Amino acid sequence: MSLLNTYGNTVEKNERPKILNPLHGVEVDYYFTASLFADSKTEVSMIVWTVVVDYEGFVYGLRTRHIGNYKPWKELLLSRIESHLNKLNIDSLQVRRMVRDIEIKKEGHIIAIDTRRLGNNIGIDGSTDLYIRKDKFSFLK
């Protein structure tokens, strides 16, 4: 089973359908949960959130679920960020440049939550509220 494939619903919460002028600036953050799946030593269940804020302070959130071998977890996060940026009308060259500069790490990005409460909502607590780490964004008003 590949960790790079999603399962279940992809949940989006956007304040606009797309970013109107991404060249003025876009900021990205990510966070995720990870746990061993079904007593396996190599298979994990991950939930990934990506949050994008445009230069006007509009927020775009995306949540996906994944199950598979833990080894490509960094590639998964970069792939999710790239996919989210592409969905928001950002030029592919700008997306590649942004993704290239992102350092993927666990510290400060992995969160401990009870994933059984999530359902089909975007919030980390099962609500419809997107969790935004405000210290990661300068465009938020």
Kindly describe this structure.
The N and C termini lie far apart (42 Å). It is built from two helices and four strands, in the order ββββαα. It has one domain. With 141 residues, the protein is an alpha+beta fold. The protein is 17% helix and 30% strand.
Short description:
This protein is an alpha+beta fold.
* Spatial strand sequence of the major β-sheet: 1-4-3-2
Q: Unreliable stretches, pLDDT < 50, 5 or more residues? A: none
Number of helices: 2
| Largest β-sheet summary | 4 strands, antiparallel
Share of helix, binned: 10-25%
What is the first-to-last residue Cα distance?
A: 42 Å
Strand content: 25-35%
Q: Give the tally of structural domains.
A: 1
Order of helices and strands: EEEEHH
Helix and strand content put the structural class at alpha+beta
List keywords for this structure.
141 residues; alpha+beta; 30% strand; four-stranded antiparallel sheet; 17% helix
Per-chain topology:
Layout: E1 6-14, E2 26-36, E3 43-54, E4 59-69, H1 73-87, H2 92-100
Antiparallel strand pairs: 1-4, 2-3, 3-4
